[in-house]
Design a protein that fits this description.
It is a single chain. The protein contains 22 helices and 13 strands. It has two domains: 56 residues; 382 residues, Cytochrome p450 (Orthogonal Bundle), CATH 1.10.630. Helix content is 59%, strand content 9%. The protein is of the alpha+beta class.
């Protein structure tokens, strides 16, 4: 340690000599470079001192796995990097200049964070600052009264029969549109990017269910909505990047690099969402909308009339984006990995297709519209193996691979490790799905059967299977998401077989768990 500090002192002393003119004939540009080098070395020195101090402390803190900047090095495979660390330590931490980011794959710790001591582990100011430029005061970012208010509104909406029936109609309609797109590719024997089609289909669904808008991105004709989708997806990646980039605030201030791109993306997003709110409000003025109106935004706008001071257009914008990310990315990501796993396991694909046929009692000569009419609630509920296969996909590829909280006070986790006020607490859903001490020696295998007991789906503890969170923040749209995914999957698998274009290639992910470069498949008619 002394030799390292000595070398750093020598470097900084040399730079100071350079800056102050002790070296002759130094140009102004060289002096300016010297200043920059000095500050870089100073920053490295500070980080190194903090890191070494935390490394040598013996105070029952979680083991140190490295500095937070390690995540930049492993950014393109971040969740597999977390998994490799979790195999060594079920709980560990990474060091930042201001605090530790603690990561855990221990279900007992997860239950403690999400339920037992829920009040101590909110999103916190650290997460809020990183995410608010995109998500504002949406439900996934805030704590306290704002979270409770949105949770109460959303809880009511998702529990209504009106919304459940309306969303089912929308899912069936968009499943037909998707099937027609896939059919055209199958007839032409063309390669298709199923991930792109699923992203557009689920976006269309959430806009219709959530906001009463026919977006129709599947047609590819609405460039305004396509720009919105690209801006939204890119912004999500940049927000993730902030967690590893210690200089993002400086970049935002200078409006350079990814932060400049984020600013442009948010402008596109805001223009789209504010226009959506304006049009919906105008429609409500011109029409007599009663309390039975199906879409969620109409109901929220009616609430805003009762409380215009708090439910401003900006607040409605933040709520709207939360619904979009919850309704589009989660279902589309899961379905993308689901079809990829079915292609890797053709016997599972056939078992799901056979179950769909038996549950619906459908004949071969049906059109897509006729088949979706057979997807009654009872028929969908019979699809236990499909439900298990989707759940197994979520176990291995959870829509939220890592979820972060923040410690409000000093604490001690059930495994005995000390947590300091301000520490980040992250449970690793992606890594947890691959831990043998949670799922057994076959943890990394795709086995829908692990969820079945005599052919009937058997759920696991939400603190072990964390894809939908748990405790007071458990996902309100869980049943909504399963219904959408099962309807889309049932329609596609009744009519088509799927095969990946390159069977030797393993799929990789982007940081949002989108499949990198898409899911390129061939579809073949079953009928």
């Amino acid at each position: 340690m002394n030799s390292i500090m000595g070398a750093l002192f020598f470097c900084m002393f040399s730079v100071l000599l350079l800056i102050t003119g002790f070296f002759p004939a130094v140009s102004f540009i060289l002096a300016l470079v010297g200043v920059l080098i000095f500050f870089v070395i100073l920053l490295i020195a500070i980080l190194l001192v903090i890191y070494i101090r935390e490394l040598i402390l013996k105070d029952h803190r979680p083991p140190v796995a490295g500095p937070i900047v390690n995540q930049i090095i492993h950014f393109n495979r971040l969740f597999d990097y977390h998994t490799s660390l979790a195999r060594k330590y079920s709980t560990f931490r990474m060091i930042t200049p201001s605090h530790s980011e603690v990561y855990t794959a221990d279900p007992v710790n997860v239950e403690y964070i999400l339920k037992t001591n829920f009040s101590n582990y909110g999103k916190g100011e650290f997460n809020y600052e990183i995410m608010r430029d995109l998500f504002g005061d949406g439900i996934f970012v805030v704590d306290g009264d704002k979270w409770r208010h949105q949770r109460k509104l959303a809880s009511y909406e998702f529990s209504t029969k009106v919304l459940r029936d309306f969303s089912t109609i929308v899912f069936r309609t968009n499943a037909v549109k998707l099937a027609l797109k896939v059919s055209a590719a199958a007839v032409a024997k063309q390669v298709m990017d199923l991930q792109d089609l699923l992203m557009k289909s689920t976006l269309d669904s959430i806009f219709k269910v959530g906001f009463g808008v026919e977006l129709d991105t599947l047609s590819g004709l609405d460039e305004f909505s396509n720009q919105f989708m690209r801006a939204f997806d890119n912004s999500n990646v940049i927000i993730y990047w902030r967690y590893a980039d210690l200089l993002w605030r400086i970049k935002r201030f200078l409006n350079i690099g990814l932060e400049a791109e984020l600013k442009k993306n948010i402008k596109v997003i805001n223009n789209f969402v504010f226009e959506l709110i304006r049009r919906k409000r105008e429609l409500m003025k011109n029409e007599k909308l009663d309390k039975g109106k199906e879409d969620i935004l109409s109901r929220f706008l009616m609430e805003s009339e009762k409380d215009p001071e708090n439910m401003t257009d900006q607040y409605l914008r933040d709520i709207t984006l939360s619904f979009i990310i919850a309704g589009k990315d989660t279902s589309a990501n899961t379905l993308t990995w689901f079809f990829y796993m079915l292609c890797k396991h053709p016997l599972v694909q056939e078992k799901v297709a056979q179950e769909v046929r038996e549950a619906t009692e459908a004949e071969d000569n049906l059109s897509a519209e006729e088949f979706t009419a057979k997807l009654s609630e009872a028929a969908v509920d019979k699809m236990q193996y499909l439900h298990a296969a989707l759940t197994e996909t979520l176990r291995l590829y959870p829509a939220v691979p890592v979820d972060g909280k923040n410690s409000g006070e000093d604490d001690i986790l059930p495994d005995g490790f000390k947590i300091k006020k301000g520490d980040g607490l992250n449970y690793m859903a992606y890594a947890m799905g691959r831990m043998t001490y949670i799922w057994g020696e076959d943890a990394e295998e795709f086995l829908p059967e692990r969820w079945l007991d005599n052919g009937v789906f058997r759920s696991e503890s939400p603190f072990k299977f964390t894809a939908f969170q748990a405790g007071p923040r458990i996902c309100l749209g869980k049943e909504f998401a399963y219904r959408q995914m099962k309807i889309l999957a049932a329609v596609l698998l009744f009519f088509f077989k799927f095969k990946v274009v390159d069977e030797s290639k393993e799929a990789t992910y982007r940081i949002t768990l989108h499949m990198d470069k898409g899911l390129h498949l061939y579809a073949f008619s079953r009928l």
